[in-house]
Design a protein that fits this description.
432 residues; seven-stranded mixed β-sheet; D-Maltodextrin-Binding Protein, domain 2; four-stranded mixed β-sheet; 2 domains; 13 strands; 13% strand; single chain; 17 helices; alpha+beta
């Protein structure tokens, strides 16, 4: 056994925005009032319905987390590390779940609860809810990336994703040939980690060695110095240095990618399904022509090697119960409603967040709103989560440092150097 290592950033101020839902009781901390830390607005709408449907069994005191993953992690870590008993249900970004669980901050779900919250869940969201054979978060919604393309460029590009899987190399060459762009996320933040992990996994590798969950940080070994690591580096460099790379590629996030795809020379893009609804918003605002979506197609995430199944990114959100809550059983009861099939459908409709439950994708209303529902579901079922590690903060920081900027990477040296950086950071030999 080893003492869990938790790194908590120093915060100079902490602001909480509270809104009380009144199905029974108020925000007075009464025995039926559950504090619920949410990451986005639709969670509050669902909570209002669940509280009303509970018949007075519980109400919610809503606490809003910062609107970015790092900020949410920081706020929750600070309060959980202080054993703050005012926390009951917390929304946890999956990459940080293992860190919280390893530190003893979360209540594990019982075996029967795990079976209940696992039933019908797609592979990607389910895998990222588990740590050391226990479930710590009930999947609320999932996410994955698709390949998006402009149908009007396919003839010039000489590649057609609608006819079957395509590789990164084919797309880079095709976009270059067509004088179009191929947008991805090259910015040094979590989106870069998402890209690296998906490429390495799609090439048959992994960032961390097997068993990394169960050893102290200084014994964790990386597996980037491998053919899979070299393949990932080559794709990142080839795209970022090609004529197909949009301007500002090395600082581009998801919204920058969408802007490049929407431009007159847009061609291809890897991005989350939220972009489909974002196209509608742009059309309503007048920044895109009314028929823009007629030119948009979608397909599975690109392959690294032709014929080898791809491992697209996995994202989403889980609901966890604080280990310090005095209302843990009531919190689990509430989560049954908050993460139900009806709730997941509502999230998908209102926020565009793909459900974690496979059955939601068979709903007629969902299929009308998301004509790519089958591709999203297939992608989430094939997705490979980012490393489930109690040291994820150090892991992602090392990857972001070692693989940026993508236009300055070398397949010959970067995998070895990035792997060494990762192991050095985990062993406290280097800082990032």
């Amino acid at each position: 056994m080893h003492k869990p290592r938790v790194r908590i950033a120093v915060v100079t101020s902490l602001t909480l925005f509270a809104a009380t839902l009144t199905a029974c009781g108020g925000g007075d901390g009464g025995s039926t009032t559950l504090s619920y830390f949410i990451a986005d607005g639709p969670q509050q709408d669902v909570a209002e319905r669940c509280a009303a449907e509970s018949g007075g069994a519980y109400s919610f005191n809503i606490q809003r987390l910062p609107n970015n993953a790092a900020g949410g992690r920081e706020q929750l870590l600070r309060r959980l590390a202080a054993e703050d008993r005012s926390l009951d249900i917390v929304s946890v970004d999956p990459p940080f779940m293992a860190e919280f669980a390893n530190a003893g901050f979360l209540r594990p779900f019982t075996d029967s609860e795990r079976q209940e919250f696992s039933r019908g869940i797609l592979k990607g969201p389910l895998e990222q809810s588990l740590f050391r054979e226990a479930m710590w978060s009930a999947p609320l919604y999932g996410n994955t990336q698709l390949l998006w393309y402009r149908k009007s460029v396919l003839a010039k590009a000489g590649v057609d994703p609608s006819k079957g899987p395509v590789t990164w190399d084919q797309l880079i060459k095709g976009a270059t040939q067509a004088g179009a762009t191929f947008a991805a996320q090259g910015r040094r933040n979590e989106s870069l980690m998402v890209w690296v992990n998906a490429l390495v996994a799609s090439a048959g590798g992994s960032i961390l060695a097997e068993g990394a969950q169960n050893v102290p940080a200084d014994q964790v070994k990386g597996q980037l110095d491998s053919p899979a690591g070299a393949a990932a580096v080559k794709i990142m460099r080839d795209l970022s240095t090609s004529p197909a790379a949009p301007p500002g590629f090395t600082t581009a996030g998801e919204e920058d990618s969408r802007a490049a795809f929407q431009a007159p020379n847009g061609g291809f893009m890897v991005n989350w399904p939220y972009v489909w609804a974002a196209f509608d918003t742009a059309i309503e605002e007048g920044s895109l022509p009314a028929d823009f979506k007629n030119d948009v197609g979608w397909a599975a995430y690109p392959q690294v090697d032709a014929g080898t199944p791809t491992a697209p990114p996995s994202g989403g959100l889980g609901l966890s119960v604080s280990a310090f809550s005095s209302k843990q059983d009531l919190a689990v009861e509430a989560i049954r409603c908050l993460a139900s099939q009806q709730s997941q459908k509502e999230f998908m409709i209102s926020a565009g967040n793909p459900a974690a439950l496979s059955a939601v994708f068979d709903d007629a209303q969902i299929r009308e709103m998301f004509p790519m529902a089958d591709e999203i579901r297939a992608g989430m079922d094939a997705a490979t989560p980012r490393p489930v590690s109690p040291y994820y903060g150090d892991v992602t920081g090392s990857i972001q440092a070692g693989f940026h900027p993508p236009d300055d990477l070398s397949p010959e040296t970067t995998p070895r150097e990035a792997n060494q950086l990762l192991e050095d950071v985990l062993s406290n030999r280097r800082l990032i």
